[in-house]
Structures are given as structure tokens and as C-alpha cells.
Amino acid sequence: MKREDLSEKILDIKRDRGWTWKYIAGEIGGMSEILVVGALLGQMKLVKPLAQKAARLFGLSETEEKMLNEIPHRGAPMPPTDPLIYRFYEMVMVNGPAFKALIEEEFGDGIMFAIDFDIEIAREPNPKGDRVKLTMLGKFLPYKYYGNEPDVPAYGFKE
Amino acid sequence: MKREDLSEKILDIKRDRGWTWKYIAGEIGGMSEILVVGALLGQMKLVKPLAQKAARLFGLSETEEKMLNEIPHRGAPMPPTDPLIYRFYEMVMVNGPAFKALIEEEFGDGIMFAIDFDIEIAREPNPKGDRVKLTMLGKFLPYKYYGNEPDVPAYGFKE
Amino acid sequence: MKREDLSEKILDIKRDRGWTWKYIAGEIGGMSEILVVGALLGQMKLVKPLAQKAARLFGLSETEEKMLNEIPHRGAPMPPTDPLIYRFYEMVMVNGPAFKALIEEEFGDGIMFAIDFDIEIAREPNPKGDRVKLTMLGKFLPYKYYGNEPDVPAYGFKE
Amino acid sequence: MKREDLSEKILDIKRDRGWTWKYIAGEIGGMSEILVVGALLGQMKLVKPLAQKAARLFGLSETEEKMLNEIPHRGAPMPPTDPLIYRFYEMVMVNGPAFKALIEEEFGDGIMFAIDFDIEIAREPNPKGDRVKLTMLGKFLPYKYYGNEPDVPAYGFKE
Amino acid sequence: MKREDLSEKILDIKRDRGWTWKYIAGEIGGMSEILVVGALLGQMKLVKPLAQKAARLFGLSETEEKMLNEIPHRGAPMPPTDPLIYRFYEMVMVNGPAFKALIEEEFGDGIMFAIDFDIEIAREPNPKGDRVKLTMLGKFLPYKYYGNEPDVPAYGFKE
Amino acid sequence: MKREDLSEKILDIKRDRGWTWKYIAGEIGGMSEILVVGALLGQMKLVKPLAQKAARLFGLSETEEKMLNEIPHRGAPMPPTDPLIYRFYEMVMVNGPAFKALIEEEFGDGIMFAIDFDIEIAREPNPKGDRVKLTMLGKFLPYKYYGNEPDVPAYGFKE
Amino acid sequence: MKREDLSEKILDIKRDRGWTWKYIAGEIGGMSEILVVGALLGQMKLVKPLAQKAARLFGLSETEEKMLNEIPHRGAPMPPTDPLIYRFYEMVMVNGPAFKALIEEEFGDGIMFAIDFDIEIAREPNPKGDRVKLTMLGKFLPYKYYGNEPDVPAYGFKE
Amino acid sequence: MKREDLSEKILDIKRDRGWTWKYIAGEIGGMSEILVVGALLGQMKLVKPLAQKAARLFGLSETEEKMLNEIPHRGAPMPPTDPLIYRFYEMVMVNGPAFKALIEEEFGDGIMFAIDFDIEIAREPNPKGDRVKLTMLGKFLPYKYYGNEPDVPAYGFKE
Amino acid sequence: MKREDLSEKILDIKRDRGWTWKYIAGEIGGMSEILVVGALLGQMKLVKPLAQKAARLFGLSETEEKMLNEIPHRGAPMPPTDPLIYRFYEMVMVNGPAFKALIEEEFGDGIMFAIDFDIEIAREPNPKGDRVKLTMLGKFLPYKYYGNEPDVPAYGFKE
Amino acid sequence: MKREDLSEKILDIKRDRGWTWKYIAGEIGGMSEILVVGALLGQMKLVKPLAQKAARLFGLSETEEKMLNEIPHRGAPMPPTDPLIYRFYEMVMVNGPAFKALIEEEFGDGIMFAIDFDIEIAREPNPKGDRVKLTMLGKFLPYKYYGNEPDVPAYGFKE
């Protein structure tokens, strides 16, 4: 069995029952909606208690429940062809250089951690048309300059 | 003269004077730091009063000032090879399907507008290591289903 | 069930019954023909009343009707290998720079909205050979320069 | 001398004099604005009288005037990274299959001619925000089925 | 049913009966051999009377006969990996620039029509080894310079 | 010095003097026009006497004359973006499978030789618009099945 | 039936019976081992008597025997990911320019024929570790310079 | 000035003086040799005191010293064509799936940190030929499952 | 049967029984864990006694056992989309130039052998978060400069 | 200075003096012609005494002589567009699977060494047209199965 077959089965059940993602994420609970939906679509793992709830909700077999608890091979095809996803891709393509310049100036050499971070989507009512508010919160991880600080022994080229 | 030559000149001046982006954006003012830096790196336009301030700050010629006010040919090479920018790319690659599922459920068919939106980066102090907080606020733009609403005449195939 | 399997089923029925797209779009009605055909080919969603008409026309199951009402993962493979579609691709490749120059000069910084727009195809009789007339009508969406207008607060880099 | 160097020179002059494309196309005249701008950007040729007018306007040398009259090596890099041009690319990617289905049904096997066609861009005032109207008018070119019609002798495999 | 499944079925029948393409094209008749074979391989359509003959020859169902009469989604994967097809690809890659220079000089700005043209393959006996003679005959299609000729009104940018 | 710089120099001279390719090929003579033009564009070599004539015609240095006699690194970028060249590419993409089927049936396993072949372009007057006639004549090169014929010793795996 | 399904079937039988390629090539005989194995893996054709032997050895049906006698669509995916095959690819990537320089100097303008050539692999015992000896023997095929030799009439551009 | 020009200048000086990387890294000191060499090749930054030492060693200008202290746009072209670097690429291509399986089983969901890690290369003498020993030491960074632990509030979809 | 189907079957059994890779590698034993897991995932071969143990452990058929002993077609798709594997890819992309500079200086012209080397993964406890330690040990393979050493006869170009 | 500039300079001198590669390789001597030519084209290093001879022959500066002694960043662009080099690429593409099958059966799991091997090109006179004989001789490098042999300790996953 492949993870994508499990995702397709879950989508079939969701369609038949007329459930929303909101309802599903509410039933499974305990975690950001984006992460729960990501797991059901095959991009994240569900920790055991949540995998169990998901299995009960969708009437999955024990094997399928175990698969939801496995870490999947992540990553969708790029560049995205779907317009909604492409807009995020474009946002990175256009603003990437400025992100790099400002984050490095503020935090130093390193990266914003794309793995251990949380994402929240919220609707912001606005008389001229509601807005989508997307907040990402990631730990900053600095490059270490080994050998350049007292507690970090430098590695050399030893024979 | 090409826009990238102008960006390189600006980076040379910034390096020589030892200026920070914060200082530069503060001097030019009036707009989100990301947009100002993006314009100096060749991805955005500066409106006339800001282009003037930038020209005065960097001692640019009149032609260079006009170029900063032009809309550039946007977009950096993809996929990004730089680790900091790649993390954002990866975030879209892994979470794109969940973004699509949740935004469409909440807002209907359409897209979050990647052009008319604002971006804010903030440092969030944290005892376990400070965090980068990135907030994007974009208008939701729905697909129109022409002919399906009283005020939108359907287009047909007319001979 | 995947959307492409549903499209293939619809094409099989269309072929067997000898229906034209014109007939099908007429039966489903209420929307631009291009959008109706796009939905049946898996690139658009049909709003509920139209999905219902389509389901009745093609004798689809309730699940299949729901799927037609879902927003698909849009986008066909590029570059197009089919000559008819390639001609449109080429038109963008050759005229893209001029579109950008003229639209930006007329409208300012922004984009023509490729999502909320309508498309009409019409036959224009001509003694030297009929012509295809393709009309696209899209809202212009300007870049906002936040912080540069009284009602748009600028975002900064806050610590 | 390369065509792209000539385009850059023309852009430099346009920037210095503060001319608009509208003004330039008006001075050169006699042809669709998109085609004139396309020629100055290196994607089209200017017929001799227009090349002469362009040379006089920009103060070009005789050699540069001749180059404007040459047919350039057409085509910009794809996929486009600039958001404005990408929207047209996306429009083809999403609607291509429906274009093919409807045009072939209406006209038979063939293609809409992407070379011998005209393009017009117009602003359509609209209280909810002006719209861009793009009209393309192209001759339909049918596939010939040689040997299948009295006046078209079939080709065979002759030894 | 997909067009490629139909092609595979036709190849299976051809193999079992030991037929040659020459024989098959002779039975179906009325058109260039290359076009008939192209249609059976899924790159061309057969007009109705020929589709009927092909169906009778191969014992196809009515639905399969209709599919042969449909215009397929054309285009094989590129670059070709098969040496025989690659040689034609290489011929375009190496001689393309000279084709462009000579055809444009002789005919003016435009293209040789790759759709409405005929192709003939013939064996040319030669004591040093027979030769393949490939003849292509295509209509030349000139670019139109709208607005530059009395009967072609120029399109402008109208507000 | 690079071959492409020499080609650019030749194009500059051709433009300044107002020469046609026909005139140039006539002056250099002795070989197919396509091959002469191909050599001047950097895709073919000119044999010594022709290189000498070309050098005299264009007033080239001795070194440049020698370079014209060198075999260049052949091949233009693919896929072609220029519409005229793309049509030939498309012709291979759509008809490649039929070429393979018919040529192999007629000649057996092998390839049409894309190197040792000649190409002729001719204008065919036609009341409905002149036509371009492109004739390619190539030797057929069969695969050898070593060890399967008396005079071809089979190679084995010898230890 | 597809050629790759036949190859998979042959590999299944080879595995079950525990045969080596050496044994199989010996049973089919009459041709270089590389070509026989290439044919069973779907990259070459087997001439009729060998196809018959192969069919008897593997217990294939008459249709499968015919398929082995067909010329396949050649070419494996590139670049190769398998380390053993990649080494040959790398050898071409690194030594290609020197091959070109030396072969052209020795033989003149043309190519080594990659189709009508033989390949032999042999083990060369060596106290420091045995060596693989790969010998390729290919006919040299010169470019013809038509019109430049008495017996080769030049092609021109005829109207 | 671009970083790659600075790297080229440094390589020129190194060549002229006949210095080894070992000597250079020893003079600059204080950090792993790989990181120092990486910085001089344009992939890492040198912290200020090291940039100063490097500037003194190579006789760089103040601006060049500042550039060495900047964080470069990291990443060399992929896939690597150089055999030495390709072997590491291949090692990831072949062993990547096993790395993923074993590291995730041992550490849970997360990644080995490719930024904050150290690398050491050592020569390991061996009678059968010395060996290269490459040691990488990276912190493991776990995925956080927000909302699933008492101190991590879950993000929801708030309106 | 394909190797990837066998890998999927093994993963299904592992999931159902709740086995860890550690347990599996312990049962099969005798080799580095990475190589055993790599073989089960289809990237390595298991030598016969280990293939037998694996077959007994997973209850495989005799044919499946033989397949595990076959050398697979190695190599996973690149670039990796999964974050954990990508980090190794990035490590090569960023540090590749420095690896090349230092290894070549220390060992001379050649490569670290990516095939005959061993890999060890170890957990290194650390109060600030455990670390992953990856050690690679590869033989250095020097380029031979044939003809330049007494015992290596130079190859020439012999006629 | 870049290696490619040095190669261009060497080609300029070779052209001016009318030298052949054979003459040049004879003057520099002591190594296979392919390797000498490869070094001058920027794909190999020349050991010191040969670099000295080359420098004297071409009248190079001391710095240029040192550069010839450096190991270059190897690898030409792929796939090759030049027909002569493409034939070798095609040979790998078509015969790669058979190479793998036969070499692995004869030698076991491993690779033929593409770095430490020699290549010889020879002309083989033949009444039907001379032939190019290319011989490659490479050491076979087996995969080691660590832990599976008494003298190779297995690596485990140690905590």
C-alpha cells in the first residue's frame, strides 16, 4: 500500500460524507489544522493518539492507522501548476532576496527553520473584501563557526 | 544600463559606507522594509518620492533615479540554491496542498493575492532562541462564474 | 477516484452519444462555454446547480457529481506539445515583453487578473477564411505600496 | 552588434527623455502598438518606412536602422518569472485544453494562426475597477488531408 | 479509453496478422502514408470514410472508430531518444539557423506552415547504397503588419 | 577569438553592405546555399578554397579565414523559441513516430544519415500562395548484426 | 503488449531458472553478447532466426517472438542514476572535447558511426586487480560537401 | 564587485605565490579548514577577525575585506559535473532513502541540521591505499507537533 | 516482478508486524545497517546468505530471495523533495567546492571512492540536543597519468 | 584568469601557427594524446614536467604554466549538441543497460573505473572505409560488503 492510495481513500470518504476539513481537524484535534490536513494529504505524520482518532473517524484498518503515524516522503511537484499554490511560490521567487537581506541583517548568518515552525491561517474581515492572514513562526538557527568560539573545537585536516 | 548593474552599484555603496538595510530603509522610509529592500535589489519599483530619496542617499544620477521608479522584470532563479531562501521554497512544497485545501474551504474558489499583499518580519524574543515571525496579509480573490449570476452576462461561442 | 478518471468517463459518454461540446454546454448552461468545458476536462469547478445538471446529463453517481463541484488541482503540462495549444503559448512567449510594457504604462504597477476574468471565442466570417476571435476581459490589480498612502499602515521590522 | 544591445540603447534613450510607449508608437505610427513595442524590444521587425521613423526619433545610426528592419530571433525565456507575463502563461496552462476542444469543434482540425493575427489592448472603464480587454484575432488554418480531396494528390512511398 | 490504448491494440493486431504499414495504408488508402500511419499511432485524425475503413480492417468497435476520427492531443516526448528520430531532431538543431536565414530572405517575415503541408518519403536507388528522400511541401505564411497596409486597420490602445 | 564573435562580425558586414545571403552564397559558390550560410553562422566548416573566397569577400584576417575552415562545435539551443525554426521541430515531434515506422519497414533497422545528406529549399509558385519545398536526401545506414553474417566475426566476452 | 512487459517476463524467467546472460547469449548465439542482451532488455532487435531461438529458450508465444524481431523505440532515461552506467556517461562528458579534436584531425569532418559499430567487453587479468577492456569499432562517416566535388551536384535555392 | 570576482582574485594570488590551502587556512586559522576554504571560494562568510587576517594575507582592499565578512548567496550548480564532487552527490542519491529510514527511526521526525554542523576530512593511512575519512556532526532538529504538547498552543483557523 | 514491488511488500510486512529497521538489520546481520536497509529499499544487493536470512524473516518466495541478491538499478530521483534527504544534498551543493580543493591538495588528482566505502551513523549524546554523527570512509583513487611513469605505457594514436 | 580563457588562448596560438594536435601532443609527449589534448582543453591536469613543456611550446607565462598543472573543474555541458560527441552519448544511452548486465555478471557488484583508465583511438584501415577503433581499459572496482568478511568490521548504529 502506498501513502497516496491512503490519501485518495480518505478524500473519497470525505467527499461521500460531505465533511469539511474544519470538521475533520476538529474531530482529530490537538494540532494545527494545517498539520492535520497535511498529514491526511500525505505530507506529515500524525502522532499515535491522533492517528488513532483519524482511523476511528474514517473507519481505517489497523495497517492504515500505522501508515498515518509514519513519516512520509515529503514534497509535492514543483513548480506548482495550481494557481493558488503558485502564488506562494511566486511570493518566494520575488521576495526571496529581500527576505535573505533583512533576516540575515537582523539575526546574523543562519536560516529560519522551515521544519520546526508553526503556520496559522486566519480570515481577517475587511469591508473591501476579506483577507487571508498567514503567520509563520520559526526558530532562527545560526551557522556555527567552529573553532572560533571557546567551546567549539575546530576541526582540522589530520593525517 | 541594466537594473542588475544598478543593484550592484547600490550594494557597493552600502558596503563601503557600512550601512545596514535598516538604516537605508529608514532613510527612504514610507513603505515596508521588505518592499524597499526588494526595490533596491531589483524586484520592486520605488514610487517617485522614494526613488528621489534613494537617489539622494546613494548619490545616483537622474537616469538611475528614473530606473528605480521603473517596474523591473521580476523573479529570481528557481529553485533557490541559497539555504535561507530554500527554506521558504520547501515550506511551499510541503504545505502547498494543505494551504489549498484549507483556504479554498474557508474562502471558496480563488486565490490569495500574492501581489497586493503586505509582508512583515518581526523578531519574537524567546528564552530558547529568538524566533522569526513572518506575517503575510493578502486579499482573497474569488473566481467569478460568469453567466451564473444575474449581473454577469455569460459569454458564449457566437458565430 | 481521481478527477482525470471522471474526465475520461465523460469523454467516453460524449463519444458514444455523439454529443458536441456546444450541446453539452447548452444543456448545462448558465456559464461561459470555456468554463463549462474546462470543468468537464478537470480544470474548473462547476457550481452546485450546474454540477447537478451535468450529473443528470451524463448519468453520474452522487459522488461524481460532488467531485465536479470540487475545485480541481489546476494546470496542464507545459510546454504544450499539441500545435493548437502551443500557438497560444508562443503568442505569450513572443508578445509577453510588449504586453508588460504597454499594460504597465497604461495601468501602472500590477497585473491583469488571470483568475477572475472571462474568455469568449467567436467565429468571425471572412471571405479569405474565417477567423477566430478570442477576447479576454480581466480586472487590473495594482500593487499596493503600503505605508505610502494615508490609509495603509506600513509594516516595519519590529523587535 | 546584437539586437539586445540595440533594445537596451533604445530603453536608455526612452528613460532619459521621459517618453512613454504611447508617444513612441504614435511617432512611429502605422501599426499596432503591441507590434511596434515588440519590435523595439527585439521580438518583431519594423518595415522600412517605420524603421526609418524610429531611427530618426531615437537618433540611430544607419546600421541600427537596418537592424530594426531585420527579422529577429524571436522568443523570451519560459516559463516567465515576471508576475504580469506569468498570468498569460497560466491562462494558457489552465484553459488550453478547453481552447482545443471548442476551437476544434467549431472549426475542425487545424490551428489558430499565432503569427498572422492582431492583438489589441483596451482599457474598459468599470466602477469596480477598470478592466484590461485583450482581443486576439487570428485566421484559422485547417489541416489538409492530402489525397482525400480531388485536387490534392496523395503522396505515397515510391521506390 | 485512451488513444494510446487504441494504438497499442492496433499494433498488437498488426503484429499478429503480420501486416506491413504499406499494406495497411493501401487498404485504408486516400491519403499520404505518413498521415495514415500517424493517425494509427495517435498523432493525426482519420476523416470519417477512412476511419470506417480502418475500423473494418482491424475489426474495431464503433467507439474505437469514432476515436480514430477525433483530433488527438499531438506530440511525442522530446528530445527523442530513438536514434532514427533523433537524426531529424539534430538536422533541425544544426540547420535551423540557416533555414531561418534563407527562407526569410526568399519569402520575407513569416513561417513555413508545419500543419498544412505534405510529406513524402521515397527510396532513391543508388549503387553506393540506396537513399531516403524526404520531401516537405509547405505553404509560406507571412506575418501581417496591421495598419501598415490600406486594407488592414491598425489596432491601437483605446480607452 | 570565438566562432560566435566571427559570425557576429560577418553579420555586421552583411548588414552594412546590404548583401543578401543569395549574393554571398553565389560569391563563395561551389556548395549548397544552406551549407554555406550554416558555415557563416557557425554550424559548418568551409573547405579551404571556399574559406579563402569568404575571407576575400568579407575582408577577414588570415586567422579568421582559418577559423572558417575549422569544424565548429555544432548545435543551436533547443527547443527553439523562434517560430520559424520551431515549426520544423514540431514537424519532427508530431511525425517522428510515423517516420520511424515507415522508414524502418522500407529499409530495415538503421537510420537516415543526418550528416552526409543534402538539403535543398525551393520556392514553388502556387496561385493560392507560394510554397516552400524542402528536400532532404540522405543515405540509409543499416545496423550491422555482427556474427550473424559470414564476413562479420562476432565479438564475445573473452577472459 | 509493450516491449518492456516482455523484457520483464524474460527477466523473471532468467531469475527463476538461474540462468546467466552468458548462457543465454550462448544459446541464442550468432551475434555479439552485448547486442543479444540489449535486444532482450528492449534496446535492439533480434533477427528472425535468433528471435526463434530466444522464443524456444524462454518458451515465448508466437506474438512475443515477433516482438523480439521488431525494432524497439530505443534509449534509456538520461542522465543515468546507476553508478555503473554513469561512469560511461562521465567518460563522454569529460573526454568528449578531446575525442572531437583528435578524431576530426585524423579523419576530417564527420562522425564515428554509433549504429553500425561493434562493441566487445573483455576481462584482462592483472595482478593488481582485473581490468575491464571495452573496445568499440565504428566506421567513420565523413560530411559531404556537395557541389564541391565533381560527382556531387550542388543544391541551390531554385524558384 | 561580485563575490565570484573576489574568489577569482584570491585564486590568482594563491597560484602566483604557490600557497597551499593548508597554509592559507593555517594563516587565517581559528575555524575548520573546510569553512575557511568555503568562504574564500564564495560559499561561507568569514567572521570579522578572520576576514581581517585573510585581507592582510592576500593584500585585499578594505571593501574586499568587508565582502568576505558578508554572507554570500550560497550554492554551486547541480548536478555537479566534476567527478570528485559528483561522488558525494551519488552517495546521497543512492543512500538517501536509507539515511531517512534509519535517522527517523533513531531520532524521530525531523532533520539532521545541514547548516549548524561541522565537517572534518582526515587521511587514514592504509597499506592498500590511504583512505579519506569524512566526518559530519550535525544537531538533530525534531518536527514540533504544535498543540499536541502542553506548552505549545495549537494554531487554528480563526475568523 | 519489479524491485520496487518487492520493496513495497517488505514495507507492508514491516508495518504490520511493527518491526524496526534496527531489529530487521539485527536479524539479517553481518553488514552495515545502512547497506542492509538500502538493499531492502532497492538500492543495494544482499549477498546470498543475507538474502536467505531476509527471505526467511519476511517469508519471501524463492524468486523474491533471488531478486534481493540481484544488483538493482540504483539511484533515487534528484533533487530530493524530502527535507531530511535534501539537507545532505545541500551539504554537497554548498561544500562541494571546498571538498574538491582540500581533498585534491591532500591526495592529488583523483576521487574519493563513493562505491567501496562504508558509512556509519551514530547518535552522539549532547546536553544541548543529541547529534547525528555520520562517518564516511572511502579509498582515494588517483588519476593515472599513463605514459608518464615507467610501468605505464602511453597510448598513442596509431594508424 | 579562468581556465577557459587559457584554453581559448591555446587554441588561438594553435590556429595561428597551423599546428596539429598530433604535433602538439608529440612535443609535450609522455602521456596519452587524449589526456594531453583534454588538459589543453581544460578537462585534465598536466603533471609539472609536461606543463613546463607546454608552456615553452606555447610561450605561456609562469602563472599560465601553473594553471595547466592545476586540476580543473571537469565536465562539459550535457546532453552534447555536437553530432560527433552525441554519438558517444547515444552509445551509452542505448547500450548502458547491456553494459550493466554483462559487466556485473562477469565481475560482480561494482563499477568500471572511469577515472583511472586509459583510452586509445586508432585508425583501422578498411577497404570499405576506414574505421575508428576506441579502446578503453579500466580497473574494476567492486562494492565492499562490510561486516560480511572477516577483515572488514561492520558499522552499526551506535548510541
TrEMBL record, chains A, B, C, D, E, F, G, H, I, J:
Residue positions of the active site: 87, 90
Catalytic activity reported: cyanate + hydrogencarbonate + 3 H(+) = NH4(+) + 2 CO2
Cleaved signal peptide residues: none
Top-level lineage group: Bacteria
The keyword Lyase belongs to this UniProt entry's keyword annotation: yes
Broadest EC class assigned to this enzyme: lyase
Keyword line: Lyase
One Gene Ontology term of the molecular function aspect: cyanate hydratase activity
Enzyme Commission code: 4.2.1.104
Presence of keyword S-adenosyl-L-methionine: no
Residue ranges annotated for the Cyanate lyase C-terminal domain, each copy included: 74-146
Pfam (any one): Cyanate_lyase
Protein family membership: Belongs to the cyanase family.
PANTHER family in the cross-refs: CYANATE HYDRATASE
Function: Catalyzes the reaction of cyanate with bicarbonate to produce ammonia and carbon dioxide.
Designated name of the protein: Cyanate hydratase
